[in-house]
């Protein structure tokens, strides 16, 4: 089986708990693995950006406890969960030695970027995603992510040509009743205004883009994601198989 890994899988197979990593490894074992520059762009904008934000919080006074408090006070939503997991990994790597944390951050910044391509046979570039070209830059020993401005006003990638090639899939998705209403609304508006495919809307359409990348590839790719709720209706609509790790261990206390 050929699996196109989505962003949830790429993040969790690097930063997840032992149980989560095992569940992902079980579903990936023995298959050819693919990814895409669109997923890489999401990866950098989410987990890599979160890691650099966490490093900034730590550098405020280089205190383990205070950094933990700031995570709960200054970071919210999904980012808070990702940052908390990253912090746990950093502390585990350095043995909770505050004198080793800063060096561990630099090591982990390199590690998390290198591990993205681990066991990946091919990186698809169907969208020419500009966010995938971001780089971690050091300035006075403080790392930051190079800025990419994704807006409707300026075309900096190949997302519009991608959607132009996806007319059949768009029609199939618009006929599927279980697709998220936000996705349907954007796709309908974009039929008369292709600028709607860019900027924030491109991020909302992320799961749809990844699924269509799998659908249009000659390798007959399946999508692998832990986000069954959002991916399953899209995969059903365009005829792509969805593979989901077995996380039933979470139900046991």
What features would you describe in this structure?
With 253 residues, this protein is an alpha/beta fold. Helices cover 55% and strands 11% of the residues. Helix 3 packs across helix 5. The chain is globular.
User: Helical segment tally?
Assistant: 12
Q: What helical percentage do the residues reach?
A: 40-55%
Q: How do the SSEs run, as a string of H and E?
A: EHHEHHHHEEEHHHHHEHE
Pairing-aware structural class of the strands and helices?
A: alpha/beta
Terminal CA distance: 33 Å
Instruction: Provide mean pLDDT, rounded.
Output: 95
Largest sheet, spatial ordering of strands: 3-2-1-6-7
* Basic shape: globular
Short synopsis of the structure:
With 253 residues, this protein is an alpha/beta fold. The chain contains 12 helices and 7 strands. α1 packs across α2 (18-28) and α3 runs antiparallel to α6.
Secondary structure blueprint with pairings:
Blueprint (H helix, E strand, L loop, with lengths): L1 E4 L1 H9 L2 H11 L3 E5 H23 L4 H11 L2 H17 L4 H17 L5 E5 L11 E4 L2 E4 L13 H6 L2 H8 L6 H10 L9 H5 L1 H11 L5 E3 L3 H11 L3 E2 L10
Parallel strand pairs: 1-2, 1-6, 2-3, 6-7
Antiparallel strand pairs: 4-5
Helix pairs in contact: 1-2, 3-5, 3-6, 11-12
